[in-house]
Design brief:
By secondary structure, this protein is an alpha+beta fold. The chain folds into 2 domains: 101 residues, no CATH class; 116 residues, Aminopeptidase (3-Layer(aba) Sandwich), CATH 3.40.630. It contains 8 helices and 11 strands. A hairpin with a 2-residue loop joins strand 1 and strand 2. Helix 3 packs across helix 4. The relative contact order is 0.19.
Length: 278
Amino acid sequence: MAARSSRSRRSAPARSALPEGTALVETLLGAWRAPARIDVDGVALLRSRGVTRRAHSAVPLDPPSDPEDLDALIDRVHALTAADGRALWRIFELPGLPPAHTALDQALDARGLVTEAPCEILGRDLASPPRGDAAVRFEVGLPPADWSEAHWRLAPRAGEEARTTLHDIMAGTPAIYATLPRPGTDGARPEDVVAVGRAALVPVRKTLVTVVDALAVDPDHRRQGHGRTVLDALLGAAHQQDARAALLEVESDNAAARALYRRAGFTRLGGCHYRVGA
């Protein structure tokens, strides 16, 4: 019998668990789930009472490629969102997305919509997750009341309605909620918490992907490694929940955060930006 070649004996390289293209976009939308969503001709129209752009914008998923159909789609979306006072689109730039995404962005530019808040989409596999710090406390499921209080203190927004809406957004997807208490305390009081973070758990086909967000550190305790401590703990806890990959978004001009995430093993998968009407 002829010997099998070394090529046939080699196992195929492991396939990354990171989603691509439209699946990646849907994963991000599923992690920060808008309270209301309407799908219009290949666009997800997200509504969240105006709280957070991520949950209150028009997101192309599979827009039409024909220029006339594209113009008609833009008109329809702008008519549906006229009550907002100005148009707001969220445009992704990712491998695997069809060329119509670029054509739509160009059409919006031609209509005078300006680019704002460019972000990077980062990801990493969780085959070898970091070891978490035993000081970090976890809860899994809906946003815990004490975590929400601490997060609101560290990252407040204007208006009590914003607080309620943020809870609704986070409650839309099961997640891991991490709290790092001030040394010498149990973190039971919001003022005793130095950092918090969230890792949403999103099913993607036959695997589970975690999306890290809501990472906030007390201003008086920054540059002490607390953000990295919470991040590593979240990744380790997500791996224990069977997540096989992690995603996050970071603003392009936030050099400190981008450096933190790259040190934690994240690499750039693509980007996104907003198109805003006058």
